[in-house]
Write a structure and sequence with these properties.
single chain, TIM Barrel
Length: 257
């Protein structure tokens, strides 16, 4: 028995466009609601949401029957990568990747020897169905999917070298951090930033890697697809809930005033 097929990686390889949702509510019940909503993939955010290893594992258990899960870690530390892979993660998004050297280190952290440095403790993890997937060690490497997030000037300067790294499957543009570093923290949708994001997406799409991004505005989402984005997060659970609740409260506060 081989490692499970990574549906998200297969979608990228087939060149299919897809939509996803960012998740920061850190709860399996909320995760299942999102998973059943119809998104091609969902992302458990461990960088800007309080998701620890246990919370990630619990959400994976309810997501996998319904959609393709991705996990964003706060950093690309090999020990943390090892833990989440053993928990069953097959697709990782790593933020703040600024060089080809960093990207190559991430590729190795996600793979068993001789192609990498991942530890061989899979018998304890749900990734191998707790040791019952007999060929897990021999087949797991092929199902690993690495998305590197480019969101700094250094990352942009090194983009061509990053795109040439074997084992990187996709590059995700981080528009907010990129805008902040370029002096547009309060005006991330300025025409100058739109031009930078558009050109970056086109450069990624022109390579053999898939381009990804997140946004919340319909017009911006259309632009990103038009500029070559293949997988796009079209919203976030926390943002959707917060906006909806505020609008509901305001509507009825106005009604009773």
């Amino acid at each position: 028995m081989a490692a499970p097929i990574n549906r998200f990686k297969a979608s990228l390889s087939a060149g299919r466009r897809s939509i996803g949702c960012w998740m920061g509510l850190c709860d399996p019940y909320a995760a299942e609601v999102t998973a059943r909503a119809g998104f091609d993939w969902v992302l458990i955010d461990g960088e800007h949401a309080p998701n620890d290893l246990a919370a990630i594992a619990r959400q994976l258990q309810v997501l996998e029957p319904h959609t393709a899960p991705i996990v964003r870690l706060p950093m690309g530390e090999p020990w943390l990568i090892k833990q989440v892979l053993d928990a069953g993660v097959q697709t990782l998004l790593i933020p703040m990747v600024n060089s080809a050297e960093e990207a190559r280190a991430l590729v190795r952290a996600m793979r068993y020897p001789p192609h990498g440095i991942r530890g061989m403790g899979f018998a304890l993890g749900r990734a191998s169905a707790f040791g019952t997937v007999g060929d897990y060690a021999a087949t797991a490497n092929d199902q690993m999917c690495l998305i590197v997030q480019v969101e700094t000037r250094a990352g942009l300067d090194a983009l061509d070298e990053i795109l040439a790294v074997e084992g990187v499957d996709a590059v995700f543009v981080g528009p907010a951090d990129l805008a902040a570093e370029m002096g547009y923290a309060t005006t991330p949708n300025a025409p100058e930033m739109q031009a930078v994001v558009a050109e970056t997406l086109r450069r990624i799409a022109g390579s053999d890697k898939a381009a990804g991004i997140i946004d919340f505005d319909d017009a911006a989402l259309e632009r990103h697809f038009g500029n070559g984005a293949q997988f796009v997060a079209v919203g976030a659970d926390v943002v959707f809930l917060s906006r909806g609740l505020r609008a509901l409260a305001q509507r009825w506060q106005d009604h009773i005033a």
